[in-house]
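User: I'm curious whether this sequence folds into something compact or stays loose and floppy. Could you predict its structure so I can see for myself?
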Amino acid sequence: MSTSDVPGRVDLLADGDGSVTLRVSGAWTLAHFATIERQMQPMRNTLGADFHLDLSALSALDTAGAGLLSLLLGPQRLCAVIATLPDLAPERRALLGTVGGAVSDILAYTPPGGDGLGFVELLAHLGRTSEAIWCQTRALLGFIGLVLETLARNLLRPRRWRMTALVAQLEQTTLDALPIVALLSLMVGAVIAFLGATVLSTYGASVFTVDLVSFAFLREFGVLLAAILLAGRTASAFTAQLGAMKSHEEIDALRTIGLDPIEVLVLPRVLALMLGLPMLTLIAMLAGVLGGAIVCVTVIGIPPAMFLSLFHADTPLSYFWVGMSKAPVLAFLIGIIGCLEGFKVTGSAESVGERTTSSVVQAIFVVILVDALAALFFMEMGW
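Assistant: Here's the prediction. I'll summarize afterward.
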C-alpha cells in the first residue's frame, strides 16, 4: 500500500520539554473522510490552544481533508498555524487558507428567520454586525495600503503607466457625468437661493442670499453633490465591471500571465477619479452659483452686476480652496470602495448585485462622513 493510500490520522504527542505536538499523517482525502472524521471526533472538544502542528507526514491532501482540518483546529487558528510553517508547500498553504476562509464564512452564516428577536438574539445580532463593520474597515484599510504601495512602486517608472486606460476611465467617470452634475447643481443652487431669500426677506436682508449661495456651494455643496453623484454612478460601475471580471475568472487570468490586477485595473480607475472629481467640483460650483444668480435676478430683483459685485466682495478665495481640497480625498475613497467591492464578488450574478448595492451605500456614507469631519476641522481652524 502506497503512502497516499494510508488513511489519514491525527495524534497528540507530548514532547520532552512539556509542549504538545499535533501530528497529522496519512492521506487526508475524500476517500478516507469517514475514517478520519470518526478518529478526530473525540479530539475536537479536548484540543487545547497551546500545541505545535506537524504536517511533515501528510502524504495527500484535498479539499475534503482541508475541511476536516479546519473543523478540527478552527478556521482562524488553522490560518494562524499554517503561517508559522515555513516548510509547508505553497499549494497546500493556499488550499488550507482558502478552505479555512470558506469554513469561517459558513460557520458565521445565520439563516434568515428564527425564533424571534429576543434580548439574546438582539445582542448576538449587534455583535455580528459590529464584527462585520470591523472586518470591512480592516479590509478597506488594507486595500488602501495595497493601492498606495502599488502606486508608489510605479510612480517613478513611466513605462508602466497605463495612460490609455487612464484616459478612457477619465472620459467615462468625468466627461460623461458632466451634464448630470451641472444640471443637479444648477437646480440645487436655485432652491437654496429661493429658500434663503424667503427667510431673509422677513428681516429685510434678501441681499445676503448672495453670500449664502457662495458660502454653501464653494465650501460644501459643490464637492458634496459631485462626490455623491460619483458614488452612486461610478462606484457602482467599478464594482459591476470588476465583479463581472471576477465571476468570469478574468482577474485570475491576469495573475496567471504575470500582471498585477491592482496595477492594471484599480490604479487607472482611482487616478481617473482623483483627476476628474476636482473638475466636476469646479463645474458644480459654477452651476450652483449660476442657479442662485438666476433666482436672485428673477425673484429678488438683484441686478446681475450687483450680484457679481457682492459675490466678489464677500467671498474669500479660501472658500474655493476648502471645497477643492476635499475632492481628491473623496475621489480616492470612492474609487477604493468601488474596486474593493468588485474584488469581493464570489462568482454569481446575485453576488454582483449585492456588492454593487453595498459599494453605493458605503461610498455615500463615507463621503458624507468625511465631508462632515472636514467641515468641522476647517471651521475649528478658522479657514
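Summary: The chain has a mean pLDDT of 84. The chain has 13 helices and three strands.
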